[in-house]
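Project standup — Tuesday

K.O.: blocked on the structure for the chain from last sprint. Re-posting the sequence here as requested.
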Amino acid sequence: MGFIESNLMQDEQVTYEAQLHPIVFWAPIVVALLGIGCLFLPFERVDDPWFQSHAWFLRIALMLVLWLIAIIRAIEVHGGKRYVVTNRRLIFKRGIIRRRSHELLLRKCEGVQTEQSIVGRILGYGSVTVTTGEVTNTYDFIRNPMRFSTMINQMIDGLSRDKTE
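H.V.: unblocked you, prediction finished:
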């Protein structure tokens, strides 16, 4: 049982969980590919004999450093993020070791805005901004942001119907 499931209120159910789009990993992938490219650096042109004898070691060391940077960046970008819509709240959780979460009560939400760039529309990702009276929360790189936005609005609408009945 995960963090969100173990912290639900009585009679609260998860209705939708938004997914991060894989585009968030483009920078770590580029850095990892640069690390592989380090294996082909032309160190043989350097006249220093020590440098030439250790060229492969230096290439591999540089590649490993870049891979380490890529791994750290991938963990930082994804970092155990979860965006969940329940029948009462919108919950954002981030962190693997150190956890940070915030929650918006759906009955306090006033508006939901979705933004997609041209590339975002082609690849299927975007940002969803949810506003309350004082707080604005933006969720970036959401896969299928219109679906996430629709689910939030459906839950808000369902809560407002429950109040009137």
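K.O.: great, moving the ticket to review. The radius of gyration is 23 Å. The mean pLDDT is 86.
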